[in-house]
Amino acid sequence: MGRNIRPSRLLLTVAVLAAGASAPLWLDSYYVGIFTVAYYFGVFAMSWDLLFGFAGEVNFGPTFLIGLGAYGAGLMNNWGLPIPLCLIGGAVVAVVGGIVLAVPALRLRGPYFGLVTLVAVLLLLDFIVIFAAQTGGEIGMMVPDVLSVSTDVNYWYAFGFLVVSAAILFGLSRSSLGLILQATGQDRVEAQALGFNVTKHKIAAFSISALFSGLAGAMLTFYQGTASVDQMVDLSIAVQIIIAVVFGGRRTILGGVLGSIFLVLFDELLRPIGQLNTFVVSAVALLVILFLPDGVLGWVLRPREPR
Amino acid sequence: MLALQILVDGFAISALYGLGAVGFTLMFGVCGVLNLAHGGIMVIAALVGWWVAADYGAGPYGGAAAGVLAGMAGSFVTYYAVIRPIQRSRAIPKVEEEIFILTGTLLWGIMLQVGLNYLFTNNPVSMQPLLPGVLTFAGVRIPWNEVLIAVLCWGVIGLLSLLVNRTRIGKQILAASINPRALTLLGFELGRVYLIVWTIYGVLAGLAGVLLASFLGASADNAGALTASAFTIVILGGLGSVPGSLIAAYIVGYAETITAYLIAPTLRPIPALVILMIVIYLRPQGLLGRR
Amino acid sequence: MKFWQTRCAGILGMAVPLALATITAAVAADQPPIKIAVIAEESAILGKSITDGARLAVTDINAKGGVNGRMLELVTYDDHSSAADAVRAFQRAVQQDHVSAVVSTFISEVYLALEPWSARLHMPMITAAAASNLITKQVHDDYDKYKYVFEGWLPSPVIAQAVCDSSHDLFVGMLHMKTAAIVSEDADWTTPLDATQAECLPKAGLQVVDHVRFNPDTTDFTPIFNKVEANHPDVLITGMAHVGVQPTVQWHDQHVPMPMGGNSGQATNPTFWKTTNGAADGVITQTGTVPGVALTPRTIPVAEEFIKDSGKFPAFTGFTAYDGVRAFAEAMQRAGSTDPDKVVAEMEKTDMVGTLGQLAFYGRDDTYTHAMRYGPKYVTGVFLQWQDGKQVCVWPRDKCPNPLKFPSFIKLPEQASAK
User: Fold this and answer.
1) CATH architecture observed for domain C157-292+381-395
2) What is the DSSP letter of A274?
3) Cα radius of gyration rounded to whole Å, chain B
4) Residue C338: pLDDT above 50?
5) Given a contact as 3+ CB pairs under 8 Å, which chains touch B?
6) pLDDT digits (tens, 9 = 90+) for B187-202
7) Element (H, E) at B245
8) Taking CB atoms and an 8 Å limit, are B34 and A115 in contact across chains?
9) In chain B, fewer beta carbons within 10 Å around the N or the C end?
10) For residue C211, what are the β-bridge partners?
């Protein structure tokens, strides 16, 4: 693994990190806020890519995990617990939810796994709406505490969280766990034949994905001061996560961050046209799916040998 | 008489659910496409139907016809602009085609919802009943429109069944749902079969949308919920199984109606969810699912 | 020589004031505009009227010279009926666009989510129609923190009182009714509404025989109507804003024999008749005002401006938003600055001829701190009934002595005379 760290790549990483860490000093506070949200989205995307890109499982309901983390943490805060406990609590709820979903779902083949994850999101949505008295329903749930009122401090929380998550997730993808996941993702039967407990590893991948998704969802809640379905649970968010990863490049982990930043920036850029910005973003995403399915990073990093 | 009222109301709403679900499952069974823009197409039909009926004075029947046509148009655009390019794209590996279709139709559905919201606002609209007035018997009061809707739904489903089982093209459709490869080997053009299925789908979704607008009212915001509802019913019944979808539609319809009447209106969606969860855990391929 | 002297004097006489005026105008124009933010639901009629009302107010104020010589500038944001989007928009408005006041939503849950941010960022804001009493409770209980928050309409318990007052006159007095059922959507604003109605309706002469709360997502109201009917109420007192078209259409199609009164937010929209294909016939609801009624000398002129501007009579939120912007403008004018604390202090002294009545706010020691004052001297709202495609004012009886008319499937109590 040491052979692969080229000096140019190292320099690039350091430069990017430095630029990111210093952003509040030279970037307009409006954009600092934009990037804060984009970073949380980036963690959503990376968690999804771990599951999809490596374990080969198409999870249509990443927002199930995010929502569990966000609302779990939000409810705990409304019951009086301080933020750090709520963050842990939210992450735990997400992981438990993820395992409860994964255990039966992983027994399914073909489109059924994806569909079951989709159903999980719908169930959560319905649950939140029915118990609107406790959860705020479709409009959203306020939380009494926030991470900080300062834009800059919020940015650094998000940035730090992103960097740590990226390091862990990227490291995992390159580790032996990552290799096994890739193997099971590409050829389940062979991996089993080689003696790996496929189900156990997939559940592990699911749990890790759930942990980071839930934690990011909880942090996003305490950044905004509200947990809401259309920022955290709605299917359109799930789609945006998938788009971010597809755009940035599947199976690269870091591509998800790139895609998220692009998506959030693009969304903001289109704000002047009002309601229709969702329309345009979706249209562009559709075109990306059709014409650039390997994504930007995937295309940039594509193998240089002739096909 | 409460029991009779529940029986009658449940029947009508289940028939409506059934019509929507049948189109959805047919699309998957024959073409292998899970169209997550389903609700969007239904709402296009509903809104266009209302608009033509109201602004052009075409009345409920003219509006309904326009709505169904709009549903067909929506179906074709979905096929040609979203599904076919993905299916034919060389850049997308075959194994991932399904998730790209799911994502693509989801995006398309969002575009439809936002676009309709912009054109019509999210205020629900309703079409005038095709048959005004109410029918009263044995202590039950039911609008004639509701009766008509139930009759229409079953009439269309009956026609569909005739089409699939008795006509030549129907048999091709059936064959395509079982083994598309074999069909092409026998010299039939798969593309033509798909086109016909998309047409049928357009009519079914369009009619379901128009009837929904007439019975309950509809708005752009309903698109997602309608897809989710059709989706739940189809998974319950078994992907690709038309009889399964109908049975599931009635289970869901009655579960909801009984809950709304006897327990509490706020808890209406819960039984369907509980049933779904049980089915996923115990029999994930659904009641009559094949795989 | 004299000729030229006269000429010079004449030219100077014109040039000097002209130059002074130009310099003043230039100085004023150099002054940056005062920005006001509007955060509303663009795809809902009630929300869009908020933006239209604010825009009209800004135009009118600028036509009269602006505030302290500075022009007003409106910045609009769509919150897509979502609390999270509204919070994002609020943060953007304050920290990026540097606005001095915010006019916002008709949805209580959204406004409640904005309140803590208004407190944290010291931004004066007003709602055009959100009614939950939690809004003012926080201002009352923690004044120093939440004093920037204002309510430009009546809080739910007060709305409920208006419903009871009008029910006493209309349903008991004119129609001799004895029982009622409360039917409301399950939302933040209806909880205190229903609680107050449950208490004051019996005092007004209507015994409450059933109380139904339904999911705001409901599309099929058949079971609800059938259930309520089984308890034989004479009238349905509704509390709806999120829904409106569907329950009304289904009420009409199913020939439910009880009239609907109380609050139906969507029924206040002038387009409601069309979207329900006339099923709105006979529906009674509270609103700000209806076409043709002059609640104050400002009502009709502003209404006519609305019609010229956007082609149709606005939803009542258009009027409350208009008055809200004007209240802020006048407060800033009196304070001589846009400093939040000074503006808030002047807002509390508002005593303005609004479009719906005399606008004033409750004070620090009143129950509903910073909500709009209710009463015959201030604002009471009116009750309308849809009759033959028109919104007809039916209450207060002294301003609106029009008779009530119901569709044929409605069964009124025996000794009814709708006069």
Assistant:
1) 3-Layer(aba) Sandwich (3.40)
2) G
3) 19
4) yes
5) A, C
6) 777 788 888 899 999 9
7) helix B242-258
8) yes
9) N
10) C182
